[in-house]
UniProtKB/TrEMBL annotation:
SUPFAM superfamilies (alphabetical): P-loop containing nucleoside triphosphate hydrolases
UniProt keyword Chloroplast present: no
GO molecular function, one term: 4 iron, 4 sulfur cluster binding
Ranges for domain UvrD-like helicase C-terminal: 276-563
Organism of provenance: Clostridium manihotivorum
InterPro entries, per database record: ADDB_N, DNA_helicase_suAddB, DNA_helicase_UvrD-like_C, P-loop_NTPase, PDDEXK-like_dom_sf, PDDEXK_AddAB-type
Name recorded for this polypeptide: ATP-dependent helicase/deoxyribonuclease subunit B
EC number of the protein: 3.1.-.-
Cleavable signal peptide: none
Length: 1154
């Protein structure tokens, strides 16, 4: 009976020594038990190593145990478990119940206890208490002995004691907590002789919890000898900054327990004086182990081959370099994949990238990580079933449920139903309607009769709806109101059976297995078992609790969140990828440490938990030991750095990215400059500088090499130099049947043009004319063609439409605003209300009535569909009231009268279509609608002005007009002037073309404004913009109040009565030039359109590109990196330059006439 220590630094052979000692005892024929006690996560690895080293005798004569395995072994051999074991999920559900019961008694944690995330915080704290043998009695006693100035900690301990007491009370009715197992093991060892006379070797531990120390204390009394291997150097001083201080403290605790149990101390074996077992083949790594934490630095004088540093641009670059280097080691230096590990501090930063790249490079790998199950389709289905109920059949919850793929509804049917539901805004009680008769085609006009095909489609949609909702309605009926958890669990199980869930999951699991996705197959198998286990534990823990469905799913979620699926190695020869804290291999030849950035490795521990560092210090002073505080963790992190750097025997590569996924810069870890100091000859590599240059470096594996081949072929095509071997590489791909087609496609890709061929004239005419005999276009459509020919073709030729969603879009808003303003103008005309009679209140009342009427009509019924849209409706009323108040003021200041609003060309109501004769002989008819036409009589002449209402901010731009992007107002003006005799019985003269912005502007001022000042500011903000006839009398007729400047039109007078340069005025002759120019521009654009030109060529004006608001960019795939994709750049010209160009075009095209 005794305890002996085995000391040795990393790589000194401690584990090897333990196994050798076991082998020696077996060969000596010793009959006593030989136990090797190691951490849980490396038991399988250690068993494999023992078997390999000793042979089959090791299975019969020795045993590898962890503390958990030891507990189960004792309980099975000696008895001791009379209750079911509660897992973490059950424990969290129990804590949820505890917090519900005691939250009124809590003080500090009263509010926090109502948050779902608090359950996990409490669970971790209870685990810590149990591991450190803290009871509620100890907490209460500690509170009593504390000074009054520690009131906050006292209140925390009081709350935790209440929670802890209640937890244990409810737990021990039916269960034992898995965290109590080691205490039970310790008690059971008193009466159990299973380890009597055993020799026990304890290896790979750095620290022990008080629970584990208690077990070791009992084993000391039972065993023949206990040998504890600790990573220690030859010094035994006490210094908390010493890298080995963690294990020195462990040694002290073990010696104290041995002394308390009168166990003799048999001394120690120091392996530090022997040749280092692990680093015998690498002088560099041996120097690293001995001197990484030495100060002053001990420099390594020789060349570096076994340690490399790599500075990557990003995570992707980092992993790709590692993958290439792994293949180099395997192919050139004879490594096996199992000899290699890739480790990082946070695996979630790398697991997806590593999976993609390692698959591309055909590197077998194992991700050493447990997966949570909350994203599994079955868990999503269960949570969404309750979400449908709580969110009143919302679109999101219903289709989250349907898209799990577990409902038995065909995916095509789900898509059909989704389009229908989105287009008609179906949610809530509408799902419970017996028959849906909403529009099947959202673009169909109101009142149009349904075709036979549409009737059949509606019948199909109703069948799909019934199949979906029938099992749901039954389930909701079963759980309506309050039920016990047992009843709700039974109802949920019956619901899952009604959907054949277990059979579907089994089928999916087999499908994954057949496709070689073993880890996915295992996940689907385990999830069904987990759900049954969660339901069973929910019934056992709280079966008779009466709750509502909304609370039931919270309890289930608490359980689901704690489950993780652990995967086992599916092959022996794999690269292990995992987190630094989990990797424990001691037979590694090569190690890659990735993500070695500042604050990541070593990690900066800032989360203090429910008990702060100060709290822990106060408790420690009271004799209550808990887990490490952040300061202690920082020193432990340094030890972790040491054990990680010394993990491999032959080759170490450390990499770090310069930027994260968002492009934010990252700094290297402090270990990088330290390594450079110790190894002055080491060269930090990057994508620019490589030590191991290999001309065939890009030829590594089929997929990445093929990607490189594409780039090489492109460079060769562009007459750039490439390596000679690429021709041979291309021949290899051509010779492989699985690659031949892809290899051929490379050259096709070189000739790829992201441009569309022109369409034959007869075909394009047929496409654009549709069923009509005439080529009928709207003026706004011609402007869209000028913006981008291809987008125009997709929208009006192919008639592509976005999926209709039941929402109020910007175009809907524009139409709504125009309709209301039209109704407003008609109302005051019909009621013969003069502009002087319209004050703010009257405007508001009229607008309110009109909007309410519009909203009541079916076309605008969406504005009645929710409180959100009700708010928007009131907002629209405010905007429109402000707009008509400004219009009223503008009309009061003006001598103009409204001649007609919503004046239509092409409807034959107001005017015939505008006819254009093309040079090809084709005739094009243009339609359009003018928001408002005003007239005034001056000296026997009639002047007209055109007003266009805009719900967005739009200003008149002569440059845009020149390029055909803003021609509507001039086209309308020309048509009105040419046809004025037909609807005015007289010839008219152009007076103005103006934009009016519909808005309720925000006025900012550093002081309070009077009503009159506020009115002026609003008029200024909503001043009309456009072109005016250069005629002082006419301008004053538009604003008879103006003296020098106007608040309603873009005009200002100088002192001499002339217009300022800033005034937007032109002569009648210039109006005529613009009219002629836009006619020519319209003919040019129509000719181009009918020639079949559908080029992908979006216009770009400065920084603005029309692609920004285009719905078809995913169709055209416009890409500036392609030589044939270029913007049509709108060159910026001064007004003088534009006038010069426009005039020259008019003179040229009309043979010298202006």
């Amino acid at each position: 009976m005794g305890i002996k220590f085995i000391y040795g630094r990393a790589g000194s052979g401690k584990s090897y020594y333990c196994i050798e000692e076991i082998k020696k005892r077996i060969e000596e024929g010793k009959e006593n038990k030989l136990i090797l006690l190691v951490p849980e996560q490396i038991t399988f690895q250690t068993e494999t190593r023992l078997l390999k080293h000793i042979g089959e005798k090791s299975v019969l004569k020795s045993e590898v145990l962890s503390f958990k395995r030891m507990a189960h072994r004792v309980f099975n051999f000696c008895g001791g478990i009379t209750h079911k074991r509660m897992n973490e999920a059950g424990r969290n559900m129990l804590i949820f119940k505890v917090l519900e019961e005691v939250n009124e008694r809590l003080s500090v944690f009263y509010r926090a206890s109502k948050q779902q995330g608090f359950v996990d915080v409490v669970s971790r704290t209870i685990t810590e208490f149990k591991k450190y043998n803290i009871t509620s009695e100890i907490l209460n006693a500690t509170m009593q002995s504390m000074r009054e100035d520690n009131e906050e900690l006292k209140m925390k301990l009081s709350d935790l004691s209440i929670i802890f007491d209640k937890f244990n009370e409810l737990l021990h009715e039916n269960y034992i907590d898995s965290e109590d197992e080691l205490n039970m093991l310790s008690d059971k060892l008193d009466d159990c002789n299973i380890f009597d006379g055993a020799d026990i070797w304890v290896d790979e531990f750095t620290t022990f919890t008080p629970q584990q120390l208690g077990v070791l204390g009992k084993l000391m009394k039972k065993a023949n000898n206990i040998y504890v291997a600790l990573t220690l150097d030859e010094t035994h001083g006490s210094d908390e900054t010493d890298i080995f201080n963690v294990t020195k403290n462990t040694e002290k605790k073990l010696l104290r327990i041995a002394a308390e149990n009168n166990i003799p101390y048999d001394g120690y074996l120091d392996l530090n004086n022997r040749e280092n077992y692990r680093f015998k083949e690498s002088r560099e790594l041996n120097h690293l182990e001995r001197h990484f934490f030495s100060y002053p630095f001990v420099h390594y004088k020789w060349a570096n081959d076994d340690i490399r540093l790599y500075k990557a641009n990003n995570n992707y670059d980092e992993i790709e370099v590692v993958a290439k280097d792994i293949l180099r080691l395997v192919r050139e230096q004879g490594y096996r994949y199992r000899d290699i590990s890739v480790v990082c501090r946070q695996l979630e930063d790398y697991e997806k990238i590593a999976s993609v790249i390692f698959n591309q490079y055909n590197i077998p790998y194992f991700l050493d990580k447990k997966r949570d199950i909350v994203s599994n389709p079955l868990i999503v289905l269960i949570t969404s079933v309750f979400e449908i109920l709580s969110r009143n059949w919302s679109y999101e919850s219903v289709f989250k449920y349907l898209k799990t793929g577990l409902t038995g509804i065909d995916g095509e049917y789900i898509d059909i139903l989704e389009n229908y539901v989105l287009a008609n805004g179906i949610k809530g009680k509408r799902w419970l309607e017996d028959w849906w008769e909403y529009k099947i085609d959202p673009f169909k006009q109101e009142g149009e009769e349904l075709s036979e095909e549409e009737k059949q489609r509606i019948s199909l949609i109703n069948d799909i709806k019934d199949e979906i909702r029938t099992p749901l309605i039954k389930f909701y009926s079963d759980i309506k109101g309050k039920h016990t958890i047992r009843e709700t669990c039974v109802a949920l199980y019956d619901f899952m059976n009604s959907l054949d869930i277990i059979e579907r999951m089994d089928s999916l699991s087999k499908s994954f297995e057949e496709k070689g996705i073993g880890d996915k197959a295992k996940e689907y198998d385990q999830v069904v078992e987990i759900i049954m286990e969660v339901l069973d534990q929910a019934v056992d823990v709280m079966g008779e609790e009466v709750i509502e469905a909304s609370d039931f799913i919270k309890i289930l979620n608490v359980g689901f969140e704690k489950y993780e699926i652990g995967l086992i190695l599916v092959a022996l020869d794999q690269v292990n990828i995992g987190e630094i804290s989990r990797i424990r291999s001691r037979e590694l030849k090569a190690l890659y440490i990735i993500g070695a950035n500042d604050g990541v490795f070593p990690a900066s521990n800032k989360d203090e938990g429910i008990l702060s560092d100060m709290d822990r210090e106060l408790l420690r002073n009271q004799g209550v030991e808990l887990a490490s505080d952040t300061k202690t963790k920082a020193f432990e992190e340094q030890f972790l750095v040491y054990t990680t750097l010394t993990m491999c025997s032959n080759y170490l590569m450390i990499t770090y990215p310069l930027a994260d996924f968002e492009g934010k810069s990252l700094r290297p870890s402090i270990i990088i400059p330290r390594l450079k100091k110790i190894f002055p000859n080491i060269k930090e590599e990057s994508d620019i500088f490589r030590l191991k240059n290999n001309e065939f470096e890009k030829v590594v594996a089929p997929i990445p090499t093929f990607n490189e081949l594409i780039g090489a072929v492109r460079r060769d095509y562009d007459k750039k130099e490439i390596e000679d071997y690429w021709a041979e590489v291309y021949s290899w791909y051509k010779s492989k049947p699985e690659w031949k087609e892809k290899a051929d496609s490379i050259f096709k890709g070189l000739k790829y043009s992201n441009q569309e061929q022109d369409i034959a004239r007869d075909k394009i005419k047929k496409i654009y004319s549709g069923n009509s005999d005439n080529l009928l276009f709207s003026v706004s459509r011609i402007e869209k063609y000028a913006q981008c020919p291809f987008a125009y073709y997709v929208q009006y030729g192919l008639k592509a439409k976005d999926r209709k969603v039941y929402e109020f879009t910007p175009p809907d808003l524009g139409s709504f605003m125009h309709n209301v303003l039209d109704e407003f103008t008609n109302y005051i005309r019909d009621k013969k209300i003069h502009w002087d009679e319209l004050d703010g209140d009257k405007c508001r009342a009229i607008i309110s009535d009109i909007v309410d009427k519009q909203v009541g009509e079916s076309a605008a019924s969406i504005l009645n569909s929710s409180k959100r849209y009700e708010y928007f409706t009131n907002r629209f009323k405010n905007i429109l009231t402000k707009s008509v108040s400004v219009i009223s003021e503008q009309m009061r200041r003006s001598n103009f009268d409204i001649f007609r609003n919503e004046f239509e060309f092409g409807s034959y109501k107001d005017s015939e279509p505008i006819k254009l004769k093309l040079s090809s002989g084709d005739e094009v008819f243009l339609t359009g609608r003018i928001d408002r036409v005003d007239t005034v009589e001056l000296d026997g002449q009639t002047y007209i002005r055109i007003i266009d209402y805009k719900s967005g901010s739009k200003e008149f731009d002569l440059n845009q007009l020149y390029y055909g992007l803003q021609i509507q107002l001039l086209v309308y003006l020309d048509a009105l002037i040419k046809n004025s005799k037909y609807f005015l019985d007289k010839q008219v003269i152009p007076g103005a073309i103006l934009y009016f912005r519909i808005d309720d502007p925000i006025i900012k001022s550093k002081r309070d404004l009077s009503d009159e000042e506020l009115k002026e500011q609003i008029l200024k903000k909503l001043k009309m913009d456009g072109l005016l006839l250069k005629d002082a009398r006419l301008v004053k007729a538009m604003d008879k109040t103006m003296e020098t400047y106007s608040l309603v039109i873009p005009a200002t007078f100088k002192k001499d009565g002339d217009f300022t340069k800033q005034s937007a005025v032109i002569t009648e002759e210039q109006f005529d030039i613009l009219r002629k120019y836009v006619n020519e521009k319209m003919i040019e654009l129509c000719e181009e359109m009918l020639s079949g030109r559908i080029k992908i060529e979006p216009s770009k004006d400065g920084k603005f590109t029309y692609c920004s608001f285009c719905n078809y960019s995913h169709i055209c795939q416009f890409d500036l990196s392609l030589s044939d994709n270029k913007h049509k750049v709108i060159q910026k010209h001064s007004d003088e330059e534009v006038w010069k160009e426009i005039t020259s075009v008019v003179v040229k095209d009309l043979g010298g006439e202006k």
